[in-house]
């Protein structure tokens, strides 16, 4: 999903990520036959970014969240169905609005376009790194994490591989059967919106930095301080 620490400049690119300007409000549920219901793994850790990202991959315009943990993708919505915001009384673990009973918190995918930094100085040198892969290589979406270590620890429960894309979105999988892509595609630093600081790369816009969990854990067993390849 290595790279040398050669350059010290930042390159800015347009990236689809969850932004703070994309919440449209609380609406009465009106299910259309073109809507797509999405199942999110590990829904006790559900966040709007998971729903938004998944709907964006399916080429929908809006993400609707109901009852705190139910994601639905929509082509359009009716503005006259809007109700007072306090009727969407459920919050996700990140405190954003996540719907209510027969109420949906709707987020615009178009307005989720934001600037995300890619960083020529971030590195893919963590032990167990397998390469940069297409964003659909590992299909079990876990949620937003603040480090590679956290993603690996969550995936280690049931799977053999952990992958991070777009800086913070963790996926897991049991097998790795896809060919790798250009390593430079995985050049988004790990979650810079958290307090965790790192020179590690965490995937790209539509690409995953993927790690072999067994290899990663073996390196820590030998020396917990040596999580990076020297």
From TrEMBL:
Q: Where in the cell is it found?
A: Membrane
Provide this UniProt record's keywords sorted from A to Z. Glycoprotein, Membrane, Signal, Transmembrane, Transmembrane helix
User: What Pfam family is a match, any one?
Assistant: WSC
Source species: Rotaria magnacalcarata
What name goes with this protein?
Answer: WSC domain-containing protein
Tell me the superkingdom of the source: Eukaryota
Recorded hits in SMART domains, A to Z, give:
WSC (SM00321)
What are the residue boundaries of the WSC domain, all occurrences included? 20-110, 126-214
Q: Carries keyword Transcription?
A: no
Q: Which GO terms describe its cellular component?
A: plasma membrane
What taxonomic classification does the UniProt entry list for its organism?
Eukaryota, Metazoa, Spiralia, Gnathifera, Rotifera
**Topology versus the membrane:** Single-pass membrane protein
